[in-house]
Amino acid sequence: MMCTKRLLVCLTFQTLLIISEAGRNLKPNSQASGLRSSATGTGLGSANSGRFRPQNPANFPGPGPQTSGTSAQFSPQTPGAPVWPRLQTLVHFPSSISSVGRPESPTNNGFPPLRPPDSTFQTMPRSASSSSISSTGSGFLRPGRSSLSSLGSISSGYGSSANLQELVGLDAPRSTAIQTSIASAETCVDRGTVPVIIASAENCFDYFTLAVSWAPGYAYKQWKNGKNIRETKVTPLWIIHGLWPSMFDRSTDPMLTCWRSDIFFNWNRFTTSKILGTLDNSWYTIFAKGYNNKKLWEHEFKDHGSCASRSSVIGDDVNYFIRTIQLVQQLNISSTLASSRYKAGFTTKLRDIIGIMKNKLEVNIRVDYVLHPQTGENYLSELFICYDVKLKLMDCPNGVLPNYKLDTDIKLVEQLPTECRT
């Protein structure tokens, strides 16, 4: 009986051992086969095909060969131990796929995150037309009443707004130029090369004279000289007469060759530029009909502006007018004189007028006035302010007057005398 029980136990033990060995031999093959099958269908590697760059599999310590791709890695086993193999996933696999359109790199694997591509082009806002103030060439703003502050970057098409960048007048240091002329017919010569080489301003004239007129006094002087006056234009205001290239020797004019043949007064640029409204308000004719503003500006540019454009701070026709307006607005003559109690209808000494302006400008100016023979009064007609060829303020040549002249009474007449009216 005891032998029978022992035999039964042995048979049972052998049976279990056989079953265990059979399971140990069959299960790994089935599992590995299943893993290999998943790698060839919709496994992670093929599902991500084209969106992730291949990476070498991680290296694990321990014996045995390393497999690549999507194969599973097995831990070593002790022979005879009924232990199931333990799967280890390769660390470079993505744990999830966000979207087909914008995949993200797997976390904790050293890849930088993917971002949408940077925009290569940027849409810039555009104005309704090309006449932007920042435009170069001949792009101008529509006509309109405007202050000079909005005119500083307009370019006429000949030169460039770069001619307007340099500081001039009261915004610049006073001139240190020596009042010795170097201009001559030999130096004021343009070279007919391609491009043409233009002689510089200092080779053609010595300085600039800015003429600003008190309308009633100036109109009376012109009336005395036989001109017909347009009474409606004669108001108690300061108006621009012109900006003139001048010589230290007052008996001579700038070189005849100073007038340029490569630029001219182009009315089309003025009619489409923002400067036109400002010109109408500050640089207009007081003469009778038949001599309009256009003719005045054309005359001023032909006689003076063409030569003046040789200056590096001017450069062309439109800039000539812009710079002139800029200088006059800096002076603010009415407020400057009024602050010293010299207003329309008042009378003061010539030395006081010169002194008031010198306190503001730190240079000597010249003053023009006209005698009214019936009343014996002297009417203020014009002020002349001088600048070097870079439009920096300077003392006017021959500006020092004897005391008997400085003691002359000068009236700022408020309206055109009655005998001048029709």
From TrEMBL:
Residues 26-83, 96-141 are annotated as: Disordered. The keyword Lipid biosynthesis does not apply. InterPro entries: RNase_T2-like (IPR001568), RNase_T2-like_sf (IPR036430), RNase_T2_His_AS_1 (IPR018188). Pfam families: Ribonuclease_T2. Residues 1-22 form the signal peptide. It comes from the Eukaryota. Keywords: Signal. GO terms for biological process: RNA catabolic process. The keyword Membrane does not apply. Residues 27-49, 65-78, 96-110 have a biased composition (Polar residues). Residues 127-141 have a biased composition (Low complexity). GO terms for molecular function: ribonuclease T2 activity; RNA binding. Belongs to the RNase T2 family. This is Ribonuclease T2 domain-containing protein.
